[in-house]
Amino acid sequence: MERAIRTATLDDYGRLSERFVTAMHGSVRADDPGRGVFEPDRALVLEDGNMVAGTARALTRTLSVPGAVVDAAHVTGVGVAPTHRRRGIMSALMRRQLSQVPESLAVLWAVDSRIYGRFGYEAAAYGHELAVDVPRAGAFAAAHEGRLEEMTSCEATKMLPPILDEYQHMRPGISGRGTHHWTRWSADPTEGRDGRTARQFALYRSNDGNPEGYVSWSGKAGFDRHGAAAGIVVDELVGLTESAYRMLWRYVMTMDLATSLTYRFGAVDEPVGQLMANPRALGPSVRDTLWLRITDVADALSRRRYATDIDTVMEVVDDLLPLNTGRFRLSADPTGVSCTRTDRLPDLSMSVAELSGVYLAGRRLTEFAAAGRVTEHRDGALAAATTAFGWPVAPKSIEVF
After folding, report:
1. What's the gap between Cα 234 and its chain centre?
2. What is the CA 65 to chain-centroid distance, rounded?
3. pTM of the model
């Protein structure tokens, strides 16, 4: 089969969506909220006759990184027809996509963690999926500051964007949303609720009236032999201040009739456990969230900030993007950051995957060095770079895109 990859058109959306969803063993919804964020000029199609054999898409969004908010290609909708597996279709699509990405970063959520390492991606953030046993959580920290207000989905899309924009400057890994992405986020098709209520939205205001946080959630009625046993599902919870964070968590943790709460997007350093008598009741499970791929080493490293001063030379190998291969001198101090090519001998050597893995400060260079994936050429260089690439808070992604 000739691998002729082309750029999609707006009319391709239905076929591309069906290919992706069926590849994920799902079914296309009649009311598909994803059409509004479809960017045909960033979608690739590989056809075999009249059928879509494979597809890969990207969304134009921002991403918070240590000390900055940058443009990042948000890769999504990658799928290959079951009849066309093991023919190199996905490899062809991913290589083409990476060669055309205008941003210096690409990020994605990996359904299967074995796939994307072949293309230079690496897990750059981890999260806690919480399955809270509410009765066992015990007493929850009292919080009576400010007030909570219910919102409609329409009100939420108007009032919440400034809160998320500010939150991006507080923690790495947060994806920005334009108008269409907020519309998609607020969509709540009945067929996707799995028996839960319609999504509910609550806004937190401080005592002086400033909006400082929000939560979206839904509930599902249930009973066991002891009585009511409803379940709460928290979709998103953002608190800009300590008061907002405490009040919002107390709100969802103390719902009448509820005995369980799930939240998929907790950070590995999520503070909520410090607010309850029994943190074990959170029932956290760790999983990888954002996978990241640097497509322009010099630009990417110059855009983020560093925990300490650093002046080091890194030798990077990139098998897919030859322009990324070389030696780069990274210099950072309180006055600024620069990353340029150099002929100096390297202090550290690694592939673009390891560099991508530590970019959001969710992993450490020492972790990769212990596995033989980073080589230290100058004593002390590994420890110094590991510290500099760190950050006070862990990265966190709050949505699957």
Report:
1. 17
2. 11
3. 0.94
282-295 per-position pLDDT tens digit: 999 999 999 999 99
Q: CA-to-CA distance for 174 and 66, rounded, in angstroms?
A: 11
CA distances from 87 to 53, 92, 118, 150 (A): 10, 10, 15, 51
Rounded CA-CA distance 141/200 in Å is 23
Q: What is the helix (H) or strand (E) element at residue 56, kind and residue range?
A: strand 51-65
β-pairing, 200-205 vs 147-151, is antiparallel
DSSP 345: P
Give residue 3's pLDDT: 65
β-strand pairing of 68-80 with 105-109: parallel
Residue 251: exposure state from Cβ atoms within 10 A (0-12, 13-18, ≥19):
middle
- Angstrom distance (rounded) from CA 2 to CA 151: 52
Task: Give the N- to C-terminal CA distance of the chain in Å, as an integer.
Answer: 31
pLDDT of the residue at 1:
45
Q: Are strands 200-205 and 258-267 parallel, antiparallel or unpaired?
A: unpaired
- 380 and 347 in contact (C-beta within 8 Å)? no
Q: Of the candidates 282, 25, 275, which has an alpha carbon nearest to the alpha carbon of residue 132?
A: 282
List the beta bridge partners of residue 205: 147, 211
At 164, list the tokens: 């998320």
Distance between CA atoms of 195 and 12, rounded to whole angstroms?
A: 32
- What token pair was written down for 141? 């920290």
